[in-house]
From TrEMBL:
Record keywords: Cell membrane, Membrane, Transmembrane, Transmembrane helix, Transport
Record PANTHER family: INNER MEMBRANE ABC TRANSPORTER PERMEASE PROTEIN YDCU-RELATED (PTHR42929:SF1), INNER MEMBRANE ABC TRANSPORTER PERMEASE PROTEIN YDCU-RELATED-RELATED (PTHR42929)
Species, as recorded: Psittacicella hinzii
Subcellular location: Cell membrane
Transmembrane segments: 12-39, 72-90, 102-129, 149-173, 205-227, 253-274
Pfam families: BPD_transp_1 (PF00528)
This protein's name: Spermidine/putrescine ABC transporter permease
Topology in the lipid bilayer: Multi-pass membrane protein
Native organism taxonomy: Bacteria, Pseudomonadati, Pseudomonadota, Gammaproteobacteria, Pasteurellales
Length: 283
């Protein structure tokens, strides 16, 4: 009885600690960002505690709308490429013998042991005019001069895919693992071909993992400003870069907070749409 009481007390303490942690480091900062977004900018201070909608009116400025458009564009293609590569890799892992699953997943997780900034510098070396890719292609005669890959949207997408790919693979693999493959065997016995088995059974039953991966990749790919700055240059501007500049350099905290709220709003709309697609797919 005493041990049960101790277990309950430990459980309650854990719950209270987690709630305190989430409230202190997520809820409170979130509330502060919302509050600051409704304050006025100040030429001498970070903000002026006077109610104003000035920052939100700037969000419809063509300049910021263009940044949002470019961010969504890069995030969309990053997520799409990540979904295709991640799904194919997850399928390959699931179809391998179980003894290889852990090894193949560790290969995906290995990059996490290295700082992402270091990996981006490595990709920068690969994609440069004198990088390994261009030198290799020229050495075998496929090209006569270096291909301009670095400082383009393509380079940014390659960098973000390399960083975010594990976040897509893990939820998709988890969904594929949960599929009762007796259903696939039954469909095979009934004469369904590989394509029909995939479209009617495998893909619908793993769609939840695809939605989870989409959510985990789409928003970060809009805010990873260091990737766009290192691989894309000033032409591949992400909303994360503008938010960083408003907080750190321009010192216009209300506008930076309003831009953050705008990015969160895009995420919420995206999640709602994906949830609707998920529900429709289940039905």
């Amino acid at each position: 009885m005493k041990s049960l009481t101790n277990l309950i007390s430990i459980k309650n303490f854990t719950i209270v600690f987690i709630l305190f942690w989430l409230g202190l480091f997520i809820l409170v900062p979130g509330i502060l960002v919302v509050l600051v977004s409704f304050f006025s900018s100040s030429p001498t201070e970070f903000y002026q505690a006077v109610f104003s909608l000035e920052s939100y009116t700037k969000l419809v400025d063509p300049l910021y709308l263009k940044v949002f458009e470019n961010s969504i564009y890069l995030a969309f293609w990053t997520t799409l490429v990540t979904m295709i590569v991640g799904y194919l890799y997850s399928l390959a892992v699931v179809n391998c013998h179980k003894k290889w699953h852990a090894f193949l997943l560790i290969l995906i997780l290995l990059p996490f042991w290295t700082n992402s900034l270091v990996r981006i510098y490595g990709i920068k070396i690969l994609l440069g005019a004198n990088g390994i890719i261009n030198k290799g292609l020229m050495s075998i005669g496929l090209i006569s001069s270096p291909i301009n890959i670095l400082y383009t949207d393509t380079a940014v997408i390659i960098g973000m895919v390399s960083i975010l790919l594990p976040y897509m693979i893990l939820p998709i693999y988890s969904s594929l693992q949960k599929i009762d493959y007796r259903l696939i065997e039954a469909a095979k016995d009934l004469g369904a071909g590989p394509f029909k088995r995939f479209t009617k059974i495998t893909f619908p039953l793993s769609f939840a993992g695809l939605v989870a991966g989409f959510t985990l990749v789409f928003l970060p790919s809009m805010g990873m400003f260091y990737i766009s700055e290192l691989l894309g240059g000033p032409k591949s501007l992400l909303i994360g870069s503008v938010i960083k500049s408003e907080f750190l350099f321009t010192r216009n905290w209300p506008l930076g907070a309003a831009l953050s709220i705008g990015m969160i709003a895009i995420l919420m709309i995206t999640m709602w749409l994906m949830n609707r697609i998920k529900v429709g797919n289940v039905e």
